[in-house]
Amino acid sequence: MAGTSQFSMNIICIGAGYVGGPTMAMIAAKCPQYKVTVVDINAERIAAWNSEKLPIYEPGLLEVVKIARGRNLFFSTNIAQAINEAEVIFVSVNTPTKTFGEGTGKAADLQYWEKTARDIIKASTTDKIIIEKSTLPVRTAHAMERILNANDKGIHFEVLSNPEFLAEGSAIEDLESPDRVLIGSQLTEKGLEARQKIVNIYANWVPKDRILTSNVWSAELSKLVANAFLAQRISSINSISMLCECTEANVSEVSRAIGMDSRIGSRFLSASVGFGGSCFKKDILNLVYICESYGLTEVAQYWENVVLMNEYQKRRFVKNMIKTMFNTIAGKKIALFGFAFKANTGDTRESPAIDIAKQLVEERAMVIITDPQAIGNAAKDLEGQLEYVKFTSDPYEAVDGAHAIAIMTEWDEYRTLDFTQIYKKMEKPAFIFDGRNILDHQKLYNIGFNVYPLGKESWKHF
Ligand code: NAD
Ligand code: UGA
Description:
alpha/beta; 17 helices; binds nicotinamide-adenine-dinucleotide; binds uridine-5'-diphosphate-glucuronic acid
């Protein structure tokens, strides 16, 4: 590890995942004056961060890592040493939904977070600023401050919240030019001083008017609310997609018409087979749990419906496939195009494709999965079902003898495939279920396909 003296600040991040890796790489690339070290208990992940094949697929990430790695960006498993040397500690460990005990299925599991707090106390010999980068329930900072400041070494820990708003697949753009950076602190003298230090880090490349400050609780809550609002838009348009199918309205036309109202805005109005990703469901359920614990039953139910609508959209998609394919898919080959939860990532956490694949297998279909980046993760997600599932990175191979294609992920390359060739390789009648509405439906119909978009009239030859 390089010496610290040549740097004006020593920053570390605990947790080298989808957030910790890219955010710290960006800080290091933009601020050569700081030493930035990312640590993790997972030695394999750290080794990958130090290699040419990074542990996550994210467009533009390797280039940013390469600007700073070995100069002022380091990846290490030596957590204690990094903590001891640090002035500012970002914590970006995973905060999944609890799968045991009180709050099972809704509350955030804070065991990884608390473990880092204990590691910090153990390894520290000087005062530190601790920054919640992970998404946490409102008022977690308070609990953390109590745990940390219960140390008997006379060390002061100031806990701030700086939630991350990047989206996977566009992480580098989001970090380079964020809509806003939010920094929440206590309003005490020490809190405000720490806040200014963190503002100064981001001010190296983010315009000052995009750096917002608030109290800690607003920052924590804003992160949960941002994800809840984004997911709510998708559930809202997905609910309308169902109505469109019954009424001959077209969901894309509806999205366009409402999105041109500047009060509504045009983004995040694409109907889909359902939202996925590691955070939307977890963060909304966490919000629901918090509301329930304050006795706000109606508020909790309001937000829980966003998740329930998403579950319904996934079930409905499969039901529609079965009904369309003459009420049985047993023994039929179905090619899933895409398995990642969105395009431009290999991440499959909570991908709608997981539920869809499992439901298809339950119906005794043979599922062939193709994806440019996510085959490895897909195989892990479907462990236990592998008898009925096959994988190939080549979509033309996936459709060999298939009865149907279902589009799961909006990868650009699927728009330009040679569907005439694909049609020839498939069983007839050949079906396409476009769970992302990315294909040219009329063109597919003209080739011979029976086409079932979402929230639009179907194109069928019988
Ligand atoms: P992740 O699972 O990819 O990474 C977390 C990392 O923390 C893992 O590598 C794990 O080994 C490490 N870790 C766990 N406990 C540790 C410990 N005690 N010491 C050292 N390392 C430890 O998770 P992620 O997707 O990066 O998400 C992290 C947090 O950021 C979550 O709270 C999530 O809600 C939030 N978030 C995620 C995204 C996203 O796009 N993935 C965006 C915004 C916010
Ligand atoms: C989301 C938020 O956009 C980020 O701001 C946030 O930081 C992050 O969650 C997090 O906290 O983890 P992410 O899940 O990476 O980011 O990706 P999104 O672009 O938000 O997509 C989420 C899901 O919604 C995907 O499955 C996507 O396909 C789906 N989606 C998105 C739709 O179905 N329709 C849309 O119009 C937009």
